[in-house]
Every structure is written in C-alpha cells, then in structure tokens.
Design goal:
It contains six helices and twelve strands. Strand 8 and strand 9 form a beta hairpin. The mean pLDDT is 92. The longest helix is centred in the middle third of the chain and has 15 residues. The protein is an alpha/beta fold and 275 residues long.
C-alpha cells in the first residue's frame, strides 16, 4: 500500500499565550513562537505507519509512506522528523502561508496525487491554527474519490478500509474502497484503533504517536526529500479565505464571592444571563 500524508507546521498550541497581535490587527506575529507538526497530522502519520506494518516489526515497512508539506525551507525539520519515525520519503512544496489556504493546498495535492498515485491519502481532520476543516473534503471532491472524515478507528480490508467515525450516540462505520481520502481524529492513535491486514487483531499498539530514537533521526538525513515549487502544481493560486482583522479575546473579569445560593442564582440570572 502507498499512502500520502500531508503535514502542516503550526505554532505550538501550548504557547498560545505568547501570540502577539499588532495594534492594527492586520496579522498574527509569530516571532519567537515554537513550531511543531499539527497534532492531527501527527495522528495521520502514525496511522499510515500502522497500516504499512504488522505491528510486531515496525521497522519492516510493508508499503510506502510519503509525507508532503507546504512552506518555507525551515519546514523541512518537520519532514525530517516524519522520516525519522518511519516515513519513506518527503516532498516540500515551497510556499508562503499568505499565498495558500485549504483550497489551494487541496488543488496542489490533487496534482501530487496524480504524480504519486497513492492508494490512500491520510490527513488530520483540521489544522489547529486555521481550524478550517476543509482540505480533505475539497481534495476528495477534486479527485472524485470516496472519503471518510473524523476517523477514530481504521481497519484495512481487501481493497479498502473499514472506518469508524464517532457520532452522537455511537460509532458510524463507513467502508471505503481504494483509492480514498481519510481524515483522522485524535482517538485513532489508541492501542486498538488501527489494524493492517498483516496485524494480528490481538496485538495492541502503544498509546499515541511514536517518537524516533537518535539513530533513526541520523538516518533520516539520508532519506529522499524533494523540493518543488507551488507553481509546479497551481499556476495561479488564489486563496478563497481572507482574514480581515485579528483581535485577542476579551480579558476575563475577575471572579466574585457570593454570600449564599440566592445571590449566586441572582447573578447567574441577571448578570451572566445563563439561567
């Protein structure tokens, strides 16, 4: 099986308190922020690795995992980390954030899919910076491929996947045939969430995503990493999402003490207006 995994570099969500917004609200100042892979994309990569191994021998890759990202040269750190955990090779499409959005990325990915011909595109359900939750769906539409979104479980079947999607009241199971687009949610990295045809159903993966040991990080430097231009895939990129202004959330008011339940109820009703 050949799997394409798009990755995005985002500002570390744990450093959200360090975000700065200029007075004119024209942009978000990311200077000084730490970068890390989008968590949902990390889950997608872990899923791809599990689908291309038998569980007991993680170094024996039973398929190909190709990772791709859109961004400047320093995004290659994200790609090298993915290669160190087991991805086969990487592609970086040189682009600036201001020139792309979910639709532009989907358009470029459709061309990459045409070149790479993967059986499956696995990606995070959304990025934790823009939170648009649209790239996977747009890509599936452009390709005309079946899609399954918000995957919590994935079991490989002959010629496709059985995907479990958490919905209100239970789990909705969707069967998709290859080639397909699947976006994943956080529970997909539970020990019994993903199984390839080669994995014994009694086997349990480690909880969460894997981390590369130092020797693998060194070896990742020798793995192929191709650099392409955005114009190679989208001649005239036209982002459809425009941000007009950024504003920090209003500061929360300090809490107050109440003398008794009656006063609490009165404040909830008259001031907070939640009753």
């Amino acid at each position: 099986m050949k799997i394409l995994v798009p990755l995005k570099r985002v500002a570390d969500p744990d450093n959200a308190n360090k975000v700065k917004i200029p007075a004119d609200g024209s942009k978000i100042d990311t200077a000084g922020l730490e970068w890390k892979p989008n968590p949902f994309d990390e889950y997608a990569l872990e899923t791809a690795l599990r689908l291309t191994e038998d569980g007991k021998s993680p170094k024996a890759r039973l398929g190909e995992v190709v990772v791709v990202t859109f961004g400047p040269a320093d995004c290659e750190t994200t790609l090298r980390a993915a290669l160190a955990t087991g991805a086969t090779r990487a592609i970086r499409v040189d682009a600036e954030d201001a020139a792309i959005d979910g639709t532009v990325v989907a358009q470029a990915l459709a061309k990459i899919v045409a070149d790479e011909k993967p059986d499956l595109v696995l990606m995070g359900k959304q990025a934790v910076d823009g939170d648009t939750n649209q790239t996977g769906q747009v890509l599936a539409e452009l390709l005309g491929w079946p899609q399954a979104t918000f995957a919590a479980t994935i079991h490989e079947q002959e010629g496709g996947l059985l995907v479990g999607r958490e919905v209100d009241g239970g789990v909705l199971e969707v069967a998709v045939k290859f080639p397909a687009v699947v976006t994943v949610d956080l529970r997909v990295v539970s020990p019994t969430s993903v199984y390839s045809l080669k994995t014994d159903k009694a086997f349990k993966h480690n909880e969460g995503v894997r981390f590369a040991p130092l020797p693998a990080i060194m070896q990742a430097r020798k793995k192929p990493l191709d650099v392409k231009k955005l114009a190679d895939y989208v001649a005239d990129p036209k982002p459809t999402i425009k941000y007009l202004r950024f504003e920090p959330p209003p500061e929360r008011k300090a809490g107050v003490k109440v003398a008794d339940v009656d006063e609490l109820v009165a404040k909830l009703k008259d001031e907070a207006k939640v009753l």
